[in-house]
Automatic annotation (TrEMBL):
Database matches in PANTHER family: PARVALBUMIN ALPHA
Organism name: Limnonectes macrodon
Protein name: Parvalbumin
Similarity-based family: Belongs to the parvalbumin family.
Domain of life: Eukaryota
Length: 110
């Protein structure tokens, strides 16, 4: 399923344009700009499963680094610093990965 089945096609490029280069990434602003924050928990879970490329039930650090590419193929990779900060914001149980409930909470708290 393409991300545009859940999010407005015009919102994704707008969100990407706000973070064109490494280091200014702000997940709260990104989730708001792309329209994910205002979606239902079910839609957030669908997005989670699209971002969970290996279908492990978790978004691990390597998948997290590619999160913007999950929204559009033109997205950039997050830097190590950005990835670590995003993981720290979402990993509430300290297991080094983000589960679906943690992802929903991460997006909802923005």
């Amino acid at each position: 399923m393409p991300m545009t089945d859940l999010l407005a096609a015009c919102d994704i490029p707008k969100a990407m344009a706000a973070f064109p280069a490494a280091e200014p990434f702000n997940h709260k602003k990104f989730f708001e700009l792309c329209g994910l924050k205002g979606k239902s928990q079910d839609d957030m879970k669908k997005v989670f499963h699209m971002l969970d490329k290996d279908q492990s039930g978790f978004i691990e650090k390597d998948e997290l680094a590619l999160i913007l590419k999950g929204f559009t193929p033109e997205g950039r990779d997050l830097s190590d610093k950005e990835t670590t900060a995003l993981l720290a914001a979402g990993d509430k149980d300290g297991d080094g990965k983000i589960g679906v409930d943690e992802f929903v909470k991460l997006v909802s708290e923005c």
